[in-house]
Amino acid sequence: xxxxxxxxxxxxxxxxxxxxxxxxxxxxxxxxxxxxxxxxxxxxxxxxxxxxxxxxxxxxxxxxxxxxxxxxxxxxxxxxxxxxxxxxxxxxxxxxxxxxxxxxxxxxxxxxxxxxxxxxxxxxxxxxxxxxxxxxxxxxxxxxxxxxxxxxxxxxxxxxxxxxxxxxxxxxxxxxxxxxxxxxxxxxxxx
Length: 191
Hints:
The protein has nine helices and four strands; from the N terminus they run βαβαααααβαβαα. With 191 residues, it is α/β, with parallel strands linked by helices. It has a four-stranded parallel sheet with strand order 1-2-3-4, with helices on both faces.
């Protein structure tokens, strides 16, 4: 694939920003949603978990892990009723074994490190492709001030803040997210 339009969320947003900076000629358009950036991560609650739980995760009983992750996941939505039942079970399912819990801590949480975003902060002004920043107004992990800062640091970036949506805005406002992505990509197709 020679040229792409990227749509990325959370840590994927940082990966997309890094890719766009490393390969600007290969990225037609970039949309980031509730992305980690600057010094915004890990969030205070994840920092506490890293400090207090990371090294003891192997001995953590499944019920304790489920409770920990459920507390974290409830913070991802503005409407907590959206993170219950089948939706919550789907998020918990990959981690219902010792291997799943170990993988979660060792291959994800252990690598939450703002240095990956801080080291590109001074280069955001180099981005010249169209950039749309989509953000949940109620994001508890990545507050809107980070979206505003990204908008200000990326030339011509457009910021769209979705009301009544949290970090997982695709759970709170799925139709709006689909519309925004389709609109963004259709403009790319017309270019």
